[in-house]
Structure formats: structure tokens, C-alpha cells
Amino acid sequence: MFSLFKKKKEYPEFWMDYEKKFKDKTPETIDENSFVVFDTETTGLDIKNDRILSIGALKVQHKSIEVSDVFERYINQSTFNPETVAIHGIIKNDLNPDTTEEAAVIEFLSYISNSVLVAHHVTFDVAMINKVLYRMGLPKLKNKTLDTMLLYRASRINSNLIDKERNYSLDEVAENLNISVKDRHTSAGDAYITAIAFLKIISRVSKQRNGRLKDLFRLNR
């Protein structure tokens, strides 16, 4: 007899461990929360067909960067677009043959835990990770996210120099916030630049809004 109840899909242990981390309530203040600032370098901007070349990430807690705990993985793959080498600087021979996209993402899930994810144009980077998870037969990331582009624009909304409709690049944000970009266009380097920008932005927000996490999400809209 046909069962009226669908059998619940069984996920691997690493995914179940990741999901368990979200049972705890998120702290209300910025200082109490853990953030993971990350970046992906990809073969292109087509989320459906392009692939991740590298993932770089670092943790921000108590308004400081944990430089001793950096995540960086280079991913081996058959998909490669030589036209984008000028942007990310990764040539095919640089890729680590021992690192698959599945292994890199499993390690990434362990690294991020239930932290708030931060990136510049975060929607793209999250979509690229989610596409890998989809190919692995897994659900999407569960983490809350913040976009430094949106936060930068919103935190300077009263400035006459800011364009409320403009999508500011990481280079532009770095220049306006006096941040060095010498390691630009590596995933770890971009994550570090983004982390410094994030710290400068939340320092400004904390002074104005008592350091509440919900105010960052409000600005992020």
C-alpha cells in the first residue's frame, strides 16, 4: 500500500552537526556575536555554470579579527575560464588536486558554524556555496548574512558624497575607508579587506545605535 507519508530524507552527519548549531538563540548585541567574513573567487559570474576556485574566510569577534584562525581552500576542478585569470590571478596549475569542492564546503560548514556571514555583495558568494550544496543533495546555508556594500551605503546615508542607489565595489569602499588593497583579488585577501571595512562600519553603527545586531540587519535592507 502506498504510504501517505514521505520518508524524511537522511542527511550526512556533518550536515546534521551543522544544523544543530542553530538551536541556540542569537545574541542581541554585536559584541556578543561571532561573524565570519568570507569571499569566493570563481571562474565567472554565472551561478549555474561557473565554479568556485577558492574560498577565503576569517572570524571577527569582540570587534577584532582573529588572524590566527584563517580559512583558505583552493579547489581542483575541470571547469576553468582563462579569461578571468586577470581578475583572480589563479592559474590552473595553482589548484590543489587534493581539494574537491565537496571537501572544501564540508570544511567551510565546520568553520562557520552558526556565525553571521559577512561578504561584499554577499548574495553572490552565498549563492555559489548554495550551488555546491545543491550538487551535494543538501539544503541551503542556514546562517544569517550581512552585506558590507549595503552596510557601507546605509551607514553613510547622511553624507552628501554617498549615492543611495549605487553599488559600491570593494575597491571603492576600501579607498573611502582608507584601507590598503595590496592583497586584492585573492579570496583570503578580499576577506581580510572586507573584515576591516566591516569593523569600521560597525564601529560607526555602534556609536549611533547602542551596538545592537538587529540594527545591522535593518541597515542591511
How would you characterize this protein structure?
This protein has 221 residues and is of the alpha/beta class. It has a single domain (27-219), classed as 2-Layer Sandwich (Nucleotidyltransferase, domain 5), CATH 3.30.420. Helices cover 38% and strands 17% of the residues. It is built from eight helices and five strands. The chain has helices at 13-20, 85-88, 101-112, 122-135, 148-155, 170-176, 187-209, 213-219; strands at 34-42, 52-61, 64-74, 116-119, 145-147. The protein has a five-stranded mixed sheet, sandwiched between helices. Strand 2 (52-61) and strand 3 form a beta hairpin. Helix 5 (148-155) packs parallel to helix 7. It is globular. The N and C termini lie far apart (50 Å). The model is unreliable at 84-88 (pLDDT under 50).
Give the SSE map.
Elements: H1 13-20, E1 34-42, E2 52-61, E3 64-74, H2 85-88, H3 101-112, E4 116-119, H4 122-135, E5 145-147, H5 148-155, H6 170-176, H7 187-209, H8 213-219
Parallel strand pairs: 1-4, 4-5
Antiparallel strand pairs: 1-2, 2-3
Helix pairs in contact: 5-7
Q: How would you summarize what this structure contains?
A:
By secondary structure, the chain is of the alpha/beta class.
Q: How far is the N terminus from the C terminus?
A: 50 Å
Instruction: Please identify which CATH superfamily we are dealing with.
Output: Ribonuclease H-like superfamily/Ribonuclease H
Radius of gyration: 18 Å
Tell me the number of helical segments per DSSP (H or I, 4 or more residues long).
8
* Helix and strand element order: HEEEHHEHEHHHH
Largest beta sheet: strand ordering: 3-2-1-4-5
In the CATH scheme, the class would be: Alpha Beta
* Number of beta strands: 5
